[in-house]
TrEMBL record:
Pfam families, sorted: SBP_bac_6
GO MF: thiamine binding; thiamine pyrophosphate binding
GO cellular component, one term: outer membrane-bounded periplasmic space
Entry annotated with the keyword Ubl conjugation: no
SUPFAM superfamilies: Periplasmic binding protein-like II
A GO BP annotation: thiamine transport
Swiss-Prot/TrEMBL keywords: Signal
Naturally occurring in which organism (per UniProt): Stappia albiluteola
Protein name as it appears in the record: ABC transporter substrate-binding protein
Length: 370
């Protein structure tokens, strides 16, 4: 194992998540599961952009491994709240608009469980998923994490900002955007908390309140652009600076391939890590295909697929300890120091932040992000 790998895999997700209670569904025979999934013939996903965590290649890998199962992709740009609403809206619908599986922000997993929107299932690699990164019953479990960063178009930005404090400077007028609607997008909701943490507030309610004040100031100064930032809007100059997860920023950098040139910066005043979780809809029209999808995602192949997309998979420690991560993948990863100083909010802190940000964005900031 390289020294870089060692540095990366020491990052702990301890204290991120609350534990579940009951014993959940156990993984069944993979051959039986595959046969049942192929009989269903389809898997319906939602909110999986192909440039997010390498999902394009991951989906193709799943289809190649399990021919005969088509993947129906719903609304790739949906936020976590939109995913839960799609489950609610399609409880009695067994058609193509009903999602089978979810990939949502940490706060949305327990919320979906409490509402009865997800069903338990334990993948065959269950024991190598850290206990503090999963519901003990298997209703949801961590899939990957990254840290909040800035994606900067250096054709348009002369002085690359290195902190949230920098973004308030007059030179960034009309430049700064979020990568989602902070009333629905987990990525944007946590960007607000990161901004609050940059001002010294503790993760949770305090950072949410301070983060809303920060974005109100950013908006009043004319620096905030109420447009959902993407690689395309960054390249066009609509949003020259986008606040987003580092893995999305790095993927956008690769996609743009120097046109325009960009830099990815982890802000010096707040290194916030964000965990996402996987779950199966309680109303999945294709429950066996959903379980097989989970098995693929949590296999070594699926986990390394996410890693190739710059996302640190939840089983990274296990992969690194067994020496199964290809060296070229390790070499392409961001610097280890990006993660060594990262703060992992607890589930209570993430929930507190979500409630304050979603409830207060319109009244405090007043910018309608679209």
């Amino acid at each position: 194992m390289t020294s870089k790998t060692k540095l990366l895999h020491v990052v702990s997700v301890a204290a991120i998540l609350a534990s579940g209670l009951a014993t959940g569904a156990q993984a069944q025979s993979l051959s039986e599961l595959e046969a049942a999934a192929k009989a269903e013939g389809m898997l319906t996903t939602i909110a999986l952009p192909h440039d997010w965590c390498g999902y394009g290649a991951v989906i193709e890998g799943f289809k190649a491994k399990y021919p005969g199962i088509s993947v129906n992709e719903l609304n790739p740009d949906a936020g976590s709240a939109d995913e839960l609403e799609a489950v609610r809206a399609n409880k009695d619908n067994k058609g193509p608009q009903a999602p089978d599986v979810l990939d949502v922000g940490l706060a949305f997993g327990p919320a979906a469980q409490a509402e009865g929107l997800v069903q338990p299932y334990k993948v065959s690699t269950w024991d190598s998923i850290p206990d503090d990164a999963k519901d003990a019953a298997g209703h949801w479990y961590g899939d990957y994490y990254g840290v909040m960063s800035f994606l900067v178009n250096t054709d348009l930005v002369d002085n690359v900002p290195t902190s949230f404090a920098d973004l308030l400077k007059p030179e960034y007028a009309g430049m700064v955007a979020l990568a989602g609607d902070p009333r629905a997008s987990n990525q944007a909701i946590l960007a607000v908390m990161a901004a609050g943490m940059a001002r010294g507030a503790e993760p949770g309610k305090a950072a949410a309140e301070e983060g809303l004040k920060y974005f109100a100031e950013l908006n009043k100064a004319g620096n905030f652009v109420p447009v959902i930032g993407k690689a395309g809007t960054l390249a066009q100059g609509t949003t020259p600076i986008v606040i987003q997860w580092d893995y999305n920023a790095l993927s956008a950098r690769d996609t743009l391939n120097g046109n325009p040139p960009v830099e990815v910066v982890v802000p010096s005043d707040a290194v916030l890590a964000g965990v996402y979780v996987q779950a199966i809809s309680a109303y999945a029209p294709h429950p066996n295909a959903a379980k097989l999808w989970m098995e693929y995602l949590y296999s070594d192949e699926g986990q390394i697929g996410w890693l190739k997309g710059y996302c640190h998979p939840i089983r990274f420690n296990d992969l690194a300890a067994r020496g199964v991560v290809p060296q070229e993948v390790v070499d392409a990863l961001p610097p280890a120091e990006n993660y060594a100083k990262a703060a992992f909010p607890t589930i209570d802190q993430v929930n507190e932040n979500k409630e304050v940000v979603v409830g207060g964005w319109d009244s405090v900031v007043g910018a309608n992000v679209q």
